[in-house]
Design a protein that fits this description.
Blueprint: H1 6-21, H2 26-44, H3 50-63, H4 72-78, H5 80-92
Helix pairs in contact: 1-2, 2-3, 2-5, 4-5
Length: 95
């Protein structure tokens, strides 16, 4: 899988979280960790990562209360490649 703007969108998500919580925050560290691993799973089609995908989705859901751009109705518009990656992983990763 190759989403040409995926890396930039991940940087934008992390930048938004950094502005709201700081780089040393638990929210930033968690998002960076989940996105890094899931990006690798996405690119190389590893057969694991469902737990991290669920953790990322939960984190984004929790953060959406404070960061409107992470709300489900806006997320796919703001971050289409990350949204595509999440949808792909939801379908592809085994339960």
């Amino acid at each position: 899988m190759k989403a040409k703007n995926l890396k930039q969108e991940i940087k934008n998500i992390l930048s938004a979280i950094d502005k709201n919580f700081g780089k040393d925050s638990r929210e930033y560290q968690d998002a960076e960790y989940y996105l890094d691993i899931l990006e690798t799973v996405y690119h190389y089609n590893y057969n694991d990562g469902i737990d991290l995908l669920n953790e990322l989705k939960q984190l984004l859901s929790n953060l959406s209360d404070k960061m409107p751009e992470l709300a489900p109705e806006r997320f796919s518009q703001q971050y289409p490649d990350v949204s595509e990656m999440i949808k792909y992983l939801e379908e592809w990763l085994p339960d």
